[in-house]
Amino acid sequence: MNKSKKLQVKKEKKNRLMEPKSASLISLPWLIGSIVVVVALVAALLFDQLYKPTLMTIDGKKYTIRDLSYYFYNVESQYSYMDYLFFGGDGSYWDMAADNESGQTIRDASKTEAVNYALYCEVLYNEAVSEGYSLTDEENQTISENVSNLLNGQISPAAIRKNNFTKAYLTNLLGKTTLVNRYRQDKIDQLNIDVEEIKKDINYEDYRQYDIETISISKKTTDDNGTVVDLSEEEKQAAYDKIKAVYEQAKTSEDWSTLLPDDETELVYKSDDSFIKTDNRFSEEMKEKVMAMDNGDISDIIEEENAYYIVRMINNNSSESYDEAVQNAVEEAESEAFNKMYNDEILPKHQYTINDKALKKYKMGSITIANSYY
Q: Which domains does the chain have, with CATH numbers?
């Protein structure tokens, strides 16, 4: 009996010795190692995603892409629109050559533009603050309204999320650009640009504007394939007869806007048309006829390549185009003068560095624009 018990005890011990080790105990070192690897990979991924290198330093302050995203967004948005306008937004525009000699692409040039724009604004902001500039109550009110507009439609929700364009962030950046614009204009006002000297290079007759009102009917149509084609001779005659019927009324009417019914689709009335002699919208022959008209005169029916016209002269000596040309020339001269001041006098007073190595990882067209193709 005792012998039997001993044998049983030994057997139980043997069985316990032969029991397999727990799977958790066997795999624990491997599991710990795997966890370490995964944690390391996740940490590396998060570091890559969350760590933002310094792209530039200005007067001791470091700037990451987060700090500069609004500047980059402004530049990227403009070029992205051009890409959409010319190539449907497929990204082709970004890789077009901006400089054939250097091989620089639009993508390269736009990045340089964004960096310089950011540097320009931040340096001028520092300069303005150092000279005691601060935002007025009126400016703060305008900034608040502009930020509201940006967050409620002017910037897409996707772009807002991607760039973390918060109300506080945008308020700060718009505050900077507002102060910079006022500071810049104050400096320009002190430059004493000679407007009269600029006017000497702008010939008034080249920009003399002729304000007219017109009734017209097209000699073109669109076929089933969407191609613009000439009307048949019969259709042209019908178009001429139609505008001629209106012409008889136009000669005695003071208000041409009442001549066409609301459902008219062929005859077109324009109350505020205009041209200058260098415009190419009308033929030289038509321009000569119209420019010879006195105010209040009504032309005969004038046949152009694409349409028939009736013209009434409203003002044959408007200065609007000339004034605009002068204003553009003055603004160009002001920009050149201020940019020279910025490069020669203002920028050298500030310490700055640009981290070209860090900038290489950012690809224009996908930095701040949401839903990019690349």
A: 71-194+339-359 (no CATH), 209-318 (3.10.50)
